[in-house]
Automatic annotation (TrEMBL):
Acyclic terpene utilisation N-terminal domain span: 4-414
Protein name stated in the entry: Exopolyphosphatase
Region (Disordered): 428-448
AtuA-like ferredoxin-fold domain boundaries: 454-549
Organism domain of life: Bacteria
Organism field: Streptomyces leeuwenhoekii
Length: 558
């Protein structure tokens, strides 16, 4: 059967608005996908739905489609998206109304069954991560557009591939290959030079969106439309493969992909082949993302300028202490961020920030009384007193947690364009997820002179969030650098370089085929990104911080 060309036009809710048009006009495609959902996005959509029961989906998608639906129809490109969020049926109806208004005959289907909110009292949204066979059923029945709720990001690619090639649930290796390709595509331009450690290797001012040429055996080539910005090489693909993953077994609802079997090869300019991916039966349970309201949060950022920074910070804390003691918030955190420089040429670079963050279940506790006390210091505090923004009332924050349910407990359903409902059976063959043993390491480099230098001179990194945990994938660009990295960057050394991780469980996973190490730091993000537990709440820059830390690196690598 022919190669299937699947493109991506969105990596998150709020991604480049014109990407649908760019992908439809930039070259040939069979399927165009859009990923709009993340843990934080589900909370945002849940809050939208509280205000309007008809809401709950990505409102930008219909606006994007209004300008491009005719193009997709003319070119025969099918569109698959999880923009349905918490209300896929509502978005499907909106798309039908739009098509009718534009006079474009398209068949719209949707996938449902992921919503388990009723089974989790007190939650704003609880949704199971479905696989790709509901999408496949809708496409096989002739849908031009398939709208889903919470499916795995990679299902947007594996579902169309299964439909096109006729794969079934037992085709584990083929499905795993498509899942890996889907994982590379899911974050859009992160596969084409966006957020890339070695971004200076190409022109990334406006990276083009990626596409995958998927073959009947599940292998693929990652590329992009000719003439678009950014670049695709083994490094950009490796970085995205490591993003928000853990060990060698990458579990999903349809298959567990073995990341330790992935082989990458350069096939030409902006073309990277992915092959050799092995798959195993999926776990017997589905992951459920549960979003709850955690309470209320407020923040005041005091600007401290010039001399006596530490003394000024101490004065603020003492002056605010009485107010905080009268009605103590459940959590109070002070953080002094030393952005100041001595003898600075600008006032901004002469200034540090003292951040006060308070959380409590009661909005009043972190609201006006707290911020009013900060304002009242304006003429009675340290010299040069001012704050970054006017303090306001406390804002709600969310808490994310994982739950798991048996695959058979979820009513995975494809609602076809003609209204027929097709139930998607759970997989007959499952396998409990267990970690693999660590593989053998390469031979270490021979002894030689070393120089103190940043890790990032010889290694790339990409990091991200999964609930309260963060992962940091680190890879070497050469075989010699890998031989050094594999022995040098242990979990213990990681903790030394990232002091926040010292009291936390850190697990290192080794992926020799990718010349990569993947570190999972448990609990570093508290209750998840929505809780904003740290300065970088989604750990997006944690990898770049690690790359900036200095180590004794062999001079032969520098």
């Amino acid at each position: 059967m022919t190669v299937l060309r699947i493109g991506n036009a969105s990596g998150f809710y709020g991604d480049r608005f014109d990407a649908l048009r760019e992908m439809l006009t930039g070259g040939d495609l069979d399927v165009l996908t859009g990923d709009y959902l993340a843990e934080l996005t589900m909370l945002i959509l849940a809050r939208d739905r509280l205000k309007d029961p008809a809401a709950g989906y990505a409102r930008t998608f219909p606006r994007q489609l209004e300008d491009t639906l005719g193009l997709a129809h003319e070119r025969g490109v099918r569109i698959v998206t999880n923009a349905g969020g918490l209300n896929p049926a509502g978005l499907a109806d909106t798309v039908r109304d739009l098509a009718g208004r534009l006079g474009i005959p398209v068949r719209v289907a949707h996938v449902e069954g992921d919503d388990l909110t009723a089974a989790h009292p007190g939650s704003l949204a609880a949704h199971a991560y479905l696989g790709g066979f509901g999408i496949a059923a809708a496409l096989r029945a002739g849908a031009d557009i398939v709208v889903t709720g919470r499916v795995t990001d990679a299902a947007l690619v594996s579902g169309p591939a299964a439909a096109h090639f006729g794969w079934g649930p037992a085709d584990h290796d083929r499905l795993a290959g498509a899942v890996v390709a889907g994982h590379v595509l899911e974050c859009g331009t992160q596969a084409t030079g966006g957020n890339y450690a070695f971004f200076r290797d190409g022109d990334v001012r406006r990276p083009g969106f990626p596409l995958a040429e998927i073959h009947p055996d599940g292998s693929s080539v990652i590329t992009k439309h000719p003439g678009t910005g950014g670049f695709v090489d083994i490094g950009t693909v490796t970085a995205q493969l490591l993003y928000e993953t853990g060990g060698a077994r990458y579990a999903g609802p349809d298959v567990t992909a073995r990341l330790d079997t992935v082989r990458l090869g350069r096939e030409g300019p902006d073309r990277v082949r992915i092959e050799g991916v092995r798959g195993e039966a999926p776990p017997p349970v589905l992951k459920v993302g549960v979003n709850r309201l955690g309470g209320f949060r407020n923040e005041v950022a005091f600007v401290l300028t010039g001399l006596d920074i530490e003394a000024k910070a101490a004065l603020v804390r003492e002056q605010m202490g009485d107010v905080l003691a009268k009605a103590p918030p459940a959590e109070v955190r002070w953080e002094l961020v030393r952005t100041d420089r001595p003898d600075a040429a600008t006032e901004e670079t002469a200034s540090a920030l003292l951040r006060l963050v308070a959380r409590d279940p009661d909005q009043a506790v972190v609201g006006r009384p707290l911020t009013a006390a900060a304002v009242e210091l304006a003429l009675a505090g340290y010299p040069g007193f001012h704050v970054l923004a006017p303090p306001g009332k406390g804002s709600p924050y969310g808490v994310f947690e994982d739950a798991y349910v048996p695959q058979g407990d979820v009513g995975h359903m494809a609602v076809l364009h003609d209204g027929r409902r097709v139930a998607v059976a759970p997989p007959e063959d499952t396998r409990p997820l267990r970690p693999l043993g660590e593989p053998a390491l390469p031979a270490p480099l021979p002894p030689g002179p070393v120089r103190r230098a940043p890790l990032g001179l010889v290694a790339g990194a990409r990091s991200g969030d999964k609930g309260g945990n963060a992962n940091v994938g680190v890879w070497a660009r050469t075989e010699d650098a890998w031989r050094w990295l594999a022995h040098e960057l242990t979990a213990e050394r990681f903790r030394e370089l990232v002091p926040e991780a010292r009291p936390l469980p850190v697990t290192r996973h080794t992926l020799p085929n990718l010349r990569a190490l993947n570190f999972v730091v448990e609990g570093i993000l508290g209750a998840g990104a929505a809780a904003q537990a740290r300065f970088d709440p989604q750990a997006k820059a944690l990898g770049e911080w690690l790359r900036s830390r200095h180590l004794d690196i062999p001079e032969a690598l520098l």
